[in-house]
Amino acid sequence: MAEIDVESLFNYAVKGQWREALDAYNKNPETLEAKITKVEDTVLHVAVHVGQTCFVKSVLDNIDKEVSLNILCMQNSKGNTPLHLSAQLGNVELCHNMAKRDPKLVCFRNVEGETPLFLAAVHGKREAFFCLHENQQRRRDDEEDGSLLVRKSNGDTILHSTVVSEYFGLALQIIELYPNLVNSVNQDGLSPLQILAAKPNCFKSSTRMELLQSIIYKCSIVDEIEETYDIRCNEADTTHHYPMNYETCATFLSLLKSTSIRKDDNAASNDEENNVSRKSEEEQAKKLEKKRYLFPPNWGATIQFLTHMMKILLIICGFGASWIGKIQRKKVKHILAKQVMNELIQRTCSSSLYKHDHTGTSNINSSPSSNNQSKEKGCYQKIRRTDSPILIAAKMGVAEMVEKILETDPVAIHDVDADNKNVVLLAIENRQPHVYSLLNERSMIKETAFRQVDNQGNSALHLAATYRSYKPWRIPGAAMQMQWEYKWYKLVKNSMPPNFYERYNENGQTAKQVFISTHERLAKEGGKWLSKTSESCSLVAALVATVAFTTSTAVPGGPNQNTGYPLFQGRLAFNIFAVASLVALCSSVTALVLFLSILTSRFQEKDFAMDLPRKLLLGLTTLFTSIASVLVSFCAGHFFIVEDELKFAVYPIYAATCLPVSLFAFVQLPLYFDLSLAMIRKVPQRSYKVLSHESHHH
Fold it and tell me: Disordered: where is this region (predicted)?
């Protein structure tokens, strides 16, 4: 085919000129089957990709049925048919149209072994997924049903993929439709629950929020989402009776009438759940019993109204609606992830396929699609080398999952990995305070799991004493990291039996020796930072002390020659000068002594826990006080030499003089807060931004 024809076909597809495309087809029947792009796309591929729905439908309706089926089966270089692209983009209308013409298209696989049904799930296209699911159900081909849900290249099922992509709402529906997928594993031997356990940022316990973010997060009312499983292929529900930019106003107005219709809505939703979700009445009753309201249910409309008013106030105060919406979406994600987690744990633990062997992992049967026995054996061996969900959750800090698994299956506390490390050892080794606190509160676990040792003879105290390359704590700086490390070591030590303090591992080291050897470099870095900081601050403190001493001896106006008392004694400005100069001298000398004491410190590991940070905090406070006092005393003394007519004019200049001190204080505030919180807190705060699979694969 000539190059000009290829270019014309491309333009026809992009612009939706289906009559011209049909004319080209009438002249040359092979036109629509031609590969017109570098990735070997046909006209229909391009049209689907650019959203020309009417063009695709018109072309298919106006050509021969056999030809249309041949074109729909055409694959590009990635193995994708037009139905693959439609499912990937979530085009429900085209998915329904194509699958209706040839139901076998749902079974076509691309190079990665993905079916259109699989692609719709991977990309979170809920409506397209259910449309293809309905067409699949109509075929009733039991042999193909299982394999349609699996990616052949790595064995991931649609449940694996939706959990990885964090489409938890769709994952809930998939669990209900395909309960067998809960126990499926991919070629790496990972189940959906294990993949979810490795995603700590999807749970509240592993999400760091500032104070204002935390307040908005708590005030956002998000009920547990009750998923419905409507698989109809229609678009009626997606239409709006108002412009999209009126959505906020419509939502706000709907609150005013929510009280009157709440009962009717509840009744309607209950009927729909009974008919569609296919859950038993006992399960619904259990869910209702578990729900705990912070306020009476009939106050719902009032609380929602107050919440909306608070959002409006925050927006007026300068906080964007997108910022507030981001926090709400985060809360929705956390709730959905927890619901998926609960469903996976309940279905996995209640299944006979889940058996603990107490040697490390749980035995989960492979995917229903794997018929080859050797394949199953290979997957099973991989699972044996893979950590169980509770171990992964302990490593990654997902306290919600650890708690739920222990409630559902208490025997899981005995799970160990290949290094013979249980939940407690992994949580302590990976510095997970939330998981540690959860386990430490349970007396039965303290008596058994806390006494576990790994293959190297390391107890929990040895692992708490071992420092690894990444920085686990939220606070910045080597000295602060060292402070938290020692506090973590002492925290774990207090929860251990006394006979574990001097326990030796296979290398002949006690926990204290391990702490000193592994933290040697961090202690040197922290000591170096403290020394440099103290040197700089002591120099400034010495200069301030010199100025303060000179200022305190120079009395404004001089003394009275007859009495010896200052001439300006009793005036307000003179009193301010006298007090400020004295405070400046005392605080600067105190700061100098504190910084010199830091410089002469031996920088032992235990000094970083309380002694050195306290000296640094007091030193910075007194240094700031001395600088501020010097400036105040200068302004008060200078006030006497200004003429009366200019006294009001010098106030802005005095304010400008104090500006550097304010900037200094503002810059030092984060360090102040970190030092203060570190001294108050007993349990350190984990940093989840640096969390990686390094700890997961350790």
Answer: 264-283, 356-378
CA distance 602 to 608: 10
Looking at the chain, the whole-number percentage of residues with pLDDT higher than 90 is 13
The CATH code of the domain at 3-177 is: 1.25.40.20
* Alpha carbons 452 and 420: distance in angstroms, whole number: 8
Cα separation, 75 vs 13, in Å, equals 17
- State the pLDDT confidence band at 223, using cuts at 50, 70 and 90: low
Q: Lowest-pLDDT range, 258-262, 404-408, 576-580, 676-680?
A: 258-262
pLDDT for res 196: 92
Evaluate if residue 85 carries a pLDDT over 90: yes
Cα 258 from Cα 300, distance rounded (Å): 9
Q: Which tokens go with 587?
A: 């605080």
Which of 67, 57, 122 is closest to 95 using CA atoms? 57
User: Of all residues in the chain, what percent are helix, strand and coil, respectively (each to 5)?
Assistant: 65, 0, 30
- DSSP one-letter code for 359: S
Q: Where are the alpha helices (DSSP H) in 198-257?
A: 211-219, 247-256
Query: Domain coordinates of the chain in residue numbers?
Result: 3-177, 178-235+307-418, 523-641
- Crossing angle, helix 126-139 and helix 168-177, to 10 degrees? 20
Alpha carbon distance 497, 155 (integer Å): 45
What pLDDT is recorded for position 162? Answer: 92
DSSP tag of 500: G
pLDDT at 83 > cutoff 90: yes
Contact 294, 196 (CB under 8 A): no
Q: Which residue do the tokens 């605080």 mark?
A: 587
Longest dimension (CA), the chain: 122
Q: 16: phi > 0 → left, psi -120 to 50 → alpha, else beta; which?
A: left
**Among 174, 281, 180, residue whose Cα is nearest residue 231:** 174
Query: Distance (Å, rounded) from C-alpha 327 to C-alpha 517?
Result: 43
Give the residue-averaged pLDDT of 60-68: 85
Q: Rounded CA gap, 484 and 474, in Å? A: 9
Q: What angle do CA 646, 650, 656 make, to 5 degrees?
A: 165
Q: And the tokens for 47?
A: 């049209």
Residues 465/514, Cβ–Cβ less than 8 Å:
yes
Burial code (b: 16+ CB inside 10 Å, e: under 16) for 511-538 equals bbebbeeebeebbeebbeebeebbeebb
Q: Give, in order, the Cα–Cα distances in Å from 311 to each of 212, 305, 316, 341.
A: 12, 10, 9, 30
The Cα–Cα gap between 171 and 344 comes to 10
Tokens 């002591």 belong to which residue? 538
Helix (H) or strand (E) holding 396: helix 389-396
Task: Give me the pLDDT at residue 330, please.
Answer: 84
Residues in CB range of 697: below 8 A, 6 or more apart: none
List the one residue out of 509, 404, 512, 502 whose CA is nearest residue 464.
512
> 263-267, 433-437, 656-660, 685-689 — which is least confidently predicted?
263-267
Q: Is the pLDDT of residue 489 over 80?
A: yes
pLDDT recorded at residue 474: 65
Sign for the pseudo-dihedral over CA of 449, 455, 457, 463: negative
Looking at residue 646, what DSSP letter applies? G
d(CA 126, CA 117): 10
Distance of alpha carbon 668 from alpha carbon 671, whole angstroms: 5
d(CA 681, CA 673): 12
Q: Could you tell me which of 441, 436, 492 has the C-alpha nearest to residue 464?
A: 492
Residue 32 near residue 59, CB atoms below 8 Å:
yes
Could you list the beta-strand ranges (E) of 248-312: none
Quote the Cα angle for 215-663-475, to 5°.
50
Pairing of strands 362-363, 355-356: antiparallel
Is residue 189 classed as helix, strand or coil in its secondary structure?
coil
